[in-house]
């Protein structure tokens, strides 16, 4: 019954498998709760813009028709840029388009960067939204409520909360590394991984948990490997600084030297630009002819020192995993001649890194692709959750239904309460976060911070609750509470705003309607979990099995 | 090893030592391997460094798995130490050669 790695006295092959089973069990356990939190908040992050939209119901998304007069629009934008920044390092005009990166509608806007002051790398920048028809500056619109939004959830998956940034990213990094180890050692542990995949023995206690854990883990194994490894690559030189420290030295200067060398832009200082001599509209028309109407995302006017001023027309990014390098057309701003594409920098190394980061963020994915990410993320939560439960099921002396918890080891008991508070409590806390958005007074100071405090207060509360109640009751009650909370969110939305399902469904506003419907979907998943757990843990259930449970279980992989 | 219901102090120290060999020794070995790989990778310096650093987590994973797989704690520790020293030594020689034959 105790955790005894059989490292010695076994055949070589068996010894390897057993040492990996030990590594898998313990690397998985000590980071399981943090990883569950990371997976829950990170999964929500795939819909962070929809979540923010829901959390700011005052904000209206105006969708200008694409059939505006392009020439007039560009003229308005250039006139305005000439007024606000006659001499600049760069001008950018964003045409209205559906963006994958912002994951929403991008409005007609301009942005400029002034020439940097001596000794500075960047100049001051500004931006304005313009009316596509008149070119007049648009008012900022109704001030939406202060909210941490979807970005608040998304950010927590790598910087946690209440912790200094530098600590948090290292904690998450260490957990991620342990997850990578848990994945690799888990695969090694399962001799017959694909046979196991098709094995499910329901209603058999530990076996069932093991089968479920195996099936879920194998199902999305490529996703788990990708998301873990690419997560490490995000903070590459924070986690593994050795190479850069030796080759380039330490400190910010060394960092810049490396980056400039990788992207070969050491001497590419900006020279001042003004309004291009050639008309821009025909160039945009040329790009639209090649890519399709509405496919031009932006027009940038800039000039590198010692080179002619250029006009760069960029396509709407998306559909390609090399997300940050969408196709562009470059033109000479004085003659209008085509300059040919700028060669990509950084070679295959930079491309590989870029693809890894984009795979992690799923920016290239359209709405269905993001749903796939969302489901894979939920499977990640399920993998971690079943793994955590499995640890306790193996080590309990008594089946939970027997009610004799007093005899359990305090360590097992601690893991049990943390499991309840994390697997059932964290979802409840996230629902509380959404409720806080609707219930906190709109004029409350530090409102966004209070939304997040609500999340953590409820989460902590569930842990106290788990300690105060018999465990089997805590499981069932908290799962039902989480279910009820998610079912309530769309109702609360209808009670407090006019952007509820009764309005959003007929209007076909799938961003907002999707949020409410997803809440009910999550409520349904939690209800299924609650019913299953309730059935398994009913005190009268399977007396023979309870008896069998009292005997220390044999060590299983 | 016979089945026991309580874990002895010696056993706990043995596990702690193995974990330290894997975590700290493995990190040292992975760091050394990253430097060596960055110096040997056939690409411009910055790109070679990026490749090597991206692969460093694979090196760390392999090192940790090897440390847990080793027959004894002594072997786990010596494997990490010898591996790190050897890799760093080769990296230093390669680096010297890269500086123009030590000139």
> What's the β-strand tally of chain A?
8
Instruction: Calculate Rg of chain A over CA atoms.
Output: 28 Å
Average of the residue pLDDT scores of chain A: 86
Radius of gyration of chain B: 17 Å
DSSP strand content of chain B = under 5%
Largest interface: A-B, 45 and 38 residues
The major β-sheet of chain A equals:
6 strands, antiparallel
Q: For the terminal residues of chain B, how far apart are their CA atoms?
A: 58 Å
Shape annotation of chain B: elongated
Oligomer: heterodimer
End-to-end Cα distance of chain A, whole Å, is 13 Å
Q: What's the total helix number of chain B?
A: 3
Which structural class fits the helix and strand makeup of chain A? Answer: alpha+beta
Q: What is the string of SSEs of chain B from the N terminus onward?
A: HHH
Strand order of the largest sheet of chain A: 5-4-1-6-7-8
Structural class of chain B: mainly alpha
Q: How is the biggest beta sheet of chain B arranged? A: none
Helix and strand element order of chain A? HHHEEEEEHHHHHHHHHEEEHHHHHHHH
Shape type of chain A:
globular
DSSP summary, beta strand count of chain B: 0
Proportion of helical residues of chain B: over 70%
Q: Descriptors for this entry?
A:
heterodimer; A: 8 strands; 58% helix; 7% strand; B: 103 residues; mainly alpha; 3 helices; disordered N terminus
Walkthrough of the structure:
The complex is a heterodimer of chains A (557) and B (103). Chain A has 557 residues and is an alpha+beta fold. Among the domains of chain A are: 233 residues, no CATH class; 151 residues, no CATH class. Chain A contains 20 helices and eight strands. In chain A, the strands form two sheets. Chain A has a six-stranded antiparallel sheet. Chain A has a two-stranded antiparallel sheet with strand order 2-3. In chain A, strand 6 and strand 7 form a beta hairpin. In chain A, helix 1 packs across helix 14, helix 3 crosses helix 12 and helix 14 runs antiparallel to helix 15. The longest helix of chain A is centred in the N-terminal third of the chain and has 34 residues. Chain B is mainly alpha-helical and 103 residues long. Chain B has a domain of 72 residues. In chain B, 81% of the residues lie in helices and 0% in strands. Chain B contains three helices and no strands. The N terminus of chain B is likely disordered. The chains are: A alpha+beta (557), B mainly alpha (103). At the A-B interface, helix 1, helix 5, helix 8, helix 9 and helix 10 of A face helix 1 and helix 2 of B.
């Amino acid at each position: 019954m105790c955790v005894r790695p059989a490292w010695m006295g076994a055949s070589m092959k068996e010894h390897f498998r057993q040492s990996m089973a030990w590594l898998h069990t313990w690397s998985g356990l000590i980071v399981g709760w943090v990883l569950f939190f990371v997976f829950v908040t990170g999964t929500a992050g795939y819909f962070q813009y929809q979540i923010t939209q829901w959390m700011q119901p005052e904000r209206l998304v105006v969708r200008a028709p694409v059939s505006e007069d392009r020439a007039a629009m560009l003229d308005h934008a250039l006139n305005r840029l000439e007024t606000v920044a006659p001499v600049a390092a760069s001008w950018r005009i964003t045409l209205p388009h559906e963006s994958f990166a912002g994951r929403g509608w991008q409005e007609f806007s301009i942005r400029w960067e002034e020439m940097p002051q001596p000794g500075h790398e960047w100049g001051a920048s500004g931006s304005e939204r313009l009316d596509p028809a008149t070119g007049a500056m648009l008012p900022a619109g109704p001030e939406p409520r202060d909210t941490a939004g979807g970005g608040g959830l998304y950010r927590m998956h790598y910087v946690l909360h209440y912790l200094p940034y530098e600590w948090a990213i290292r904690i998450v990094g260490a957990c991620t590394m342990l997850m990578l180890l848990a994945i690799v050692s888990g695969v090694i542990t399962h001799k017959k991984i694909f046979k196991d995949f098709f094995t499910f023995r329901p209603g058999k206690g530990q076996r069932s948990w093991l089968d479920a854990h195996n099936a879920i883990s194998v199902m999305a194994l490529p996703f788990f490997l990708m998301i873990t490894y690419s997560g490490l690559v995000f903070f590459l030189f924070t986690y593994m600084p050795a190479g850069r420290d030796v080759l380039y030295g330490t400190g910010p200067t060394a960092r810049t030297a490396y980056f400039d060398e990788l992207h070969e832009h050491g001497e590419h200082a900006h020279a001042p630009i003004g309004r291009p001599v050639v008309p821009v509209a025909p160039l945009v028309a040329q790009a639209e002819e090649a890519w399709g109407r509405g496919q031009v995302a932006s027009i940038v006017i800039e000039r590198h020192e010692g080179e002619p001023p250029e006009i760069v027309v960029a396509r709407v990014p998306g559909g390609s995993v090399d997300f940050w390098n969408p196709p562009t057309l470059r033109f000479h701003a004085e003659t209008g001649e085509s300059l040919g594409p700028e060669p990509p920098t950084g070679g295959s190394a930079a491309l590989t890194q870029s693809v890894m980061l984009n795979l992690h963020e799923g920016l290239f994915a359209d709405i269905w692709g993001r749903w796939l990410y969302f489901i894979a993320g939920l499977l990640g939560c399920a993998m971690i959750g079943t793994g955590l439960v499995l640890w306790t099921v193996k080590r309990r002396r008594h089946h939970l239904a027997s009610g004799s918890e007093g005899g359990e080891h305090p360590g097992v008991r601690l893991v049990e309460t943390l499991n309840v508070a994390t697997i059932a409590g964290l979802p409840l806390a996230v629902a509380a976060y959404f409720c806080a958005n609707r219930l906190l007074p709109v004029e409350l100071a530090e409102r966004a911070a209070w939304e997040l405090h609500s999340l953590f207060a409820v989460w902590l509360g569930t842990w106290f609750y788990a300690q105060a109640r018999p465990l089997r009751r805590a499981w069932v009650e908290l799962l039902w509470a989480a279910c009820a909370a998610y079912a309530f969110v769309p109702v609360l939305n209808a009670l407090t705003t006019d952007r509820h399902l009764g309005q959003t469904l007929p209007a076909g506003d799938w961003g907002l309607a999707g949020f409410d419907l997803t809440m009910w979907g999550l409520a349904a998943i939690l209800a299924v979990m609650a019913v299953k757990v309730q059935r398994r843990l009913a005190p009268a259930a399977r007396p023979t099995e309870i008896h069998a449970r009292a005997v220390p279980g044999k060590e299983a992989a | 090893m016979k089945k026991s219901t309580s874990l002895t102090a010696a056993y706990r120290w043995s596990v702690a030592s193995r974990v330290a060999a894997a975590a700290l020794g493995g990190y040292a070995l992975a760091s050394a391997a990253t430097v060596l790989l960055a110096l040997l990778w056939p690409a411009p310096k910055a790109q070679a460094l990026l490749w090597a650093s991206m692969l460093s987590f694979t090196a760390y994973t392999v090192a940790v798995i090897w440390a847990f797989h080793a027959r004894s704690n002594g072997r786990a520790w010596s494997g990490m130490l010898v591996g790190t020293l050897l890799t760093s030594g080769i990296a230093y020689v390669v680096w010297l050669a890269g500086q123009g034959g030590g000139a």
